């Protein structure tokens, strides 16, 4: 879906545990609600927000960029049902180590289905469904995210080419088809833990994620 407009609405200094960033708020306006996402059938225009953390000179060689999808349970509470928090920290450390880079934090909780639906999906997973099956059982696509907004924000930031921190080939393809060159994929793989090993295996088996530490021989086993 095409945005009618994307604008920066705020910028401020942002000191963190990893170093000093600029925090920026962006807003994109869509002509109508997305068909598959948490906001359902609501009519009328839809405003989507995105937070960017920017460090250093991003206009030389292609900078490292992380598109991180919101995960309240992982990012804030440190949940070990998923690898999100560890990936967020990996990305911020990578940017800090390079002295330059961008974290785009998009508000697509639960792969776009919303927080309450994600909690319902967790309930189903406790009954034996995997992360993909749970979404489908609740009437959603396995993944409801779109990446046009981060692509438009990169264009506004004057960044035509990136080194993308991700294990998800769909993010690489989506950015490229939105006109951002991905010159390298930088692994976002973290050490598997018992509590989210099944989650990683499902991402590898059903969502095509590139995860070297999960042996193929284990794929499909429960
Ligand atoms: N619907 C649903 N969403 C989940 C679940 N666990 C984590 N998420 C959400 O999944 C998103 C992160 O997606 P992942 O599939 O873990 O990783 P990715 O962003 O596709 O790929 P990477 O760039 O490699 O991290 C966040 O929005 C989380 O809130 C779950 O069991 N069900
Ligand atoms: Zn998570």
TrEMBL record:
According to the UniProt entry, its GO molecular function terms are: 3,4-dihydroxy-2-butanone-4-phosphate synthase activity; GTP binding; GTP cyclohydrolase II activity; zinc ion binding
The record's section on Gene3D superfamilies has:
GTP cyclohydrolase II
Tell me the cofactors it needs.
Zn(2+)
Residue positions annotated to bind GTP are 66-70, 87, 109-111, 131, 166, 171
> Signal peptide span per the entry?
none
**Active site positions, chain numbering:** 143 (proton acceptor), 145 (nucleophile)
Where the record annotates domain GTP cyclohydrolase II, the positions are 8-186
**Which one GO biological process term can you cite for this protein?**
riboflavin biosynthetic process
Record's protein name: GTP cyclohydrolase-2
Q: Which gene encodes it?
A: ribA
């Amino acid at each position: 879906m095409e945005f009618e407009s994307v604008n920066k609405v705020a910028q401020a200094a942002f000191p963190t545990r990893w170093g000093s960033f600029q925090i920026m708020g962006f807003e994109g306006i869509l002509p109508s609600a997305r068909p598959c996402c948490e906001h359902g059938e609501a009519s009328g225009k839809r405003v989507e927000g995105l937070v960017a953390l920017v460090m250093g000179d991003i206009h030389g060689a292609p900078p490292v960029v992380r598109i991180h999808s919101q995960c309240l349970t992982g990012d804030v509470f440190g949940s070990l049902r998923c690898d999100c928090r560890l990936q967020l920290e990996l990305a911020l450390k990578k940017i800090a180590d390079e002295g330059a880079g961008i974290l785009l934090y998009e508000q697509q909780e639960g792969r776009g289905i919303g927080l309450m639906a994600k909690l319902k999906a967790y309930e189903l997973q406790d009954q034996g469904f995997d992360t993909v099956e749970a979404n489908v059982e609740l009437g959603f696509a396995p993944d409801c995210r779109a990446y046009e907004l981060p692509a438009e924000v990169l264009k506004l930031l004057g960044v035509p080419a990136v080194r993308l921190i991700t294990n998800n080939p769909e993010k690489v393809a989506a950015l490229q088809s939105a006109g951002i060159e991905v010159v390298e994929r930088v692994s976002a793989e973290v050490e598997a833990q018992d509590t989210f090993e099944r989650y990683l295996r499902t991402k590898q088996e059903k969502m095509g994620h590139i995860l070297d530490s999960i042996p193929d021989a284990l794929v499909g086993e429960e």
